[in-house]
Design brief:
Length: about 200
């Protein structure tokens, strides 16, 4: 069976760190494996804790009287040196549950007020994002939105445009724009689930 023998911390940053693992393969060979993590210490890595606590939260929020628009952010991301469409999202702060984090992040990024939709745990637990390179996991919170969009509460370093997209605009975005994968899958459902987009949560 493959396993991790040793872990060495390579960087010491606040939001993201690189760790070198000594990976033992199932045939006994040893090789280095590199892991990016939100953890600031080896003992906080999911390898060490054995727990999948959510690092972040993504918010699938519907807007308008007919709930026929979805809130997106068009955000500049340095790894691609370009803009990408995503759900509003952010890190879960110490002491927060994912719904509290979602309400806070939605307001900070868009100015909108989120009312979460109750759902079973399996729809809102943390799932891993890109497990081949990171132990980051993210929960998704679903809900309805009210208020007027604004970028007034965004941080100065953020380059974010708030988008309220109807189904036709979502089709265009999927065809023509950079889109984060979790957002892309949910937009595909939103385009076709015209009667009750959150029916799958029941």
């Amino acid at each position: 069976m493959s396993k991790v023998n040793h872990i060495k911390m390579q960087t010491s940053n606040r939001f993201l760190n690189l760790y070198e693992l000594e990976a033992e393969h199932r045939d006994g060979r040893i090789s280095p494996y590199f892991l990016a993590s939100r953890s600031e210490k080896i003992e906080d890595l999911k390898i060490s804790t054995g727990k999948n606590s959510p690092d972040g939260v993504a918010i699938y929020g519907l807007y308008g009287e007919k709930k026929d628009k979805v809130a997106l952010v068009k955000q500049f991301r340095y790894p691609i040196n370009d803009y990408i469409y995503e759900f509003p999202a952010g890190l879960v702060e110490p002491g927060e549950d994912v719904q509290q984090a979602a309400v806070r992040e939605m307001y900070e990024e868009t100015g909108l007020t989120l009312t979460p939709v109750p759902c079973s745990q399996e729809y809102q637990k943390a799932y891993f994002t890109t497990i081949g390179m990171t132990d980051e996991s993210c929960a998704t919170v679903y809900g309805y939105l009210s208020g007027e969009p604004t970028n007034r509460h965004q941080e100065a370093a953020e380059d974010i445009q708030v988008i309220l997209a109807d189904r036709e605009e979502c089709k265009r975005i999927l065809k023509e724009e950079n889109v984060a994968i979790i957002c892309a899958y949910m937009l595909m459902h939103f385009i076709h689930d015209t009667e009750e987009p959150f029916a799958f949560l029941k």
